[in-house]
């Protein structure tokens, strides 16, 4: 699909999984000082998720790769992000999109018995702009 080097995260987990996927969506930044970003426009967002853990499930997975993609792609692809419940009252900037993806992915991971952690969400919005979101601390052990 596509290959790229991503910034790496320091951690002590035994297993680290990375999943790439992309989705296409429209958004606008709802404020006067956002310049032309105020107008509705679209991006193909490229996402890389970094998931880690010490325990595998009965399939030998930290989490199924396709499940990870489904969590985000299924909800964001070909949507106007501003209209989604995840962005109610928020500005869907690249930073907020990355943080929101983290929250969606981690809450899905929290339902798994082997308790994997999302350590990093990389979101590329344009060929020259990307954001990396890392949770400050993992509230789970
Ligand atoms: Zn934009």
TrEMBL record:
<keyword id="KW-0671">Queuosine biosynthesis</keyword>
<feature type="binding site">
    <location>
        <position position="27"/>
    </location>
    <ligand>
        <name>Zn(2+)</name>
    </ligand>
</feature>
<comment type="similarity">
    <text>Belongs to the PTPS family. QueD subfamily.</text>
</comment>
<feature type="active site" description="Proton acceptor">
    <location>
        <position position="37"/>
    </location>
</feature>
<comment type="pathway">
    <text>Purine metabolism; 7-cyano-7-deazaguanine biosynthesis.</text>
</comment>
<feature type="binding site">
    <location>
        <position position="41"/>
    </location>
    <ligand>
        <name>Zn(2+)</name>
    </ligand>
</feature>
<dbReference type="GO" id="GO:0046872">
    <property type="term" value="F:metal ion binding"/>
</dbReference>
<feature type="binding site">
    <location>
        <position position="43"/>
    </location>
    <ligand>
        <name>Zn(2+)</name>
    </ligand>
</feature>
<keyword id="KW-0456">Lyase</keyword>
<dbReference type="GO" id="GO:0070497">
    <property type="term" value="F:6-carboxytetrahydropterin synthase activity"/>
</dbReference>
<dbReference type="GO" id="GO:0008616">
    <property type="term" value="P:tRNA queuosine(34) biosynthetic process"/>
</dbReference>
<keyword id="KW-0479">Metal-binding</keyword>
<feature type="active site" description="Charge relay system">
    <location>
        <position position="78"/>
    </location>
</feature>
<dbReference type="Pfam" id="PF01242">
    <property type="entry name" value="PTPS"/>
</dbReference>
<dbReference type="InterPro" id="IPR007115">
    <property type="entry name" value="6-PTP_synth/QueD"/>
</dbReference>
<feature type="active site" description="Charge relay system">
    <location>
        <position position="125"/>
    </location>
</feature>
<protein>
    <recommendedName>
        <fullName>6-carboxy-5,6,7,8-tetrahydropterin synthase</fullName>
        <ecNumber>4.-.-.-</ecNumber>
    </recommendedName>
</protein>
<keyword id="KW-0862">Zinc</keyword>
<dbReference type="InterPro" id="IPR038418">
    <property type="entry name" value="6-PTP_synth/QueD_sf"/>
</dbReference>
């Amino acid at each position: 699909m596509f290959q790229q080097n991503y910034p790496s995260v320091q951690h002590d987990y035994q297993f680290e999984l990375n999943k790439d996927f992309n989705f296409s969506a429209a958004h606008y930044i709802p404020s006067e000082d956002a310049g032309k970003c105020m107008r509705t426009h679209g991006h193909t967002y490229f996402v890389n998720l970094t998931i880690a853990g010490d325990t595998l499930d009965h399939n030998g997975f930290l989490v199924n790769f396709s499940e990870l993609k489904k969590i985000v792609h299924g909800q964001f692809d070909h949507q106007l992000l501003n209209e989604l419940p995840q962005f109610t009252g928020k500005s869907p900037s690249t930073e907020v999109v990355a943080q929101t993806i983290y929250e969606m992915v981690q809450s899905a991971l929290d339902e798994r018995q082997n308790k994997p952690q999302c350590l990093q969400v990389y979101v590329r919005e344009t060929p020259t702009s990307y954001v990396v979101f890392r949770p400050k601390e993992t509230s789970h052990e």
